[in-house]
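Action item from last week, closing it out:
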Amino acid sequence: MLSETSATATGLERARVQPADIPKPCMERSATGTGFALMPNGKCAERDNQPGRARPDPVLLKEIRRAHRCSDALVTGRAASVAELATSEGVSDRYISSVLPLAFLAPEIIEAIAAGRQPADLTAHRIIRTIDLPTEWGAQKRSLGFA
């Protein structure tokens, strides 16, 4: 059995995703109501605010970035424990433990979320609090509504 640190390192290596690779969504709004959309390449493109258009979920992206940041801190030794991470993040250790599995999402799922192509009911709250996230990427896609 792999240690928590080895499993974390292996998952990050397999996913080839680093916290900095997960772009922050563009949230600026102009006076005309035109906004910006996050593109899969991480750049922002102008879009109108029509219903039904893909929109990245900024809260979900924030929590995925937090998961990668926390996982990386544990792997590299910058944080000695989940309790230490919780203190530095300003949340409970239980919350950190709930968020950490997001560091192991399939790369295709992260790309879809960053592009705003996630199922409408997939929110940060739902994925963190109510879904027992499988470790196998195919099972993740099915569980989260991507397959």
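Closing note: The chain has one domain: 4-24+54-144.
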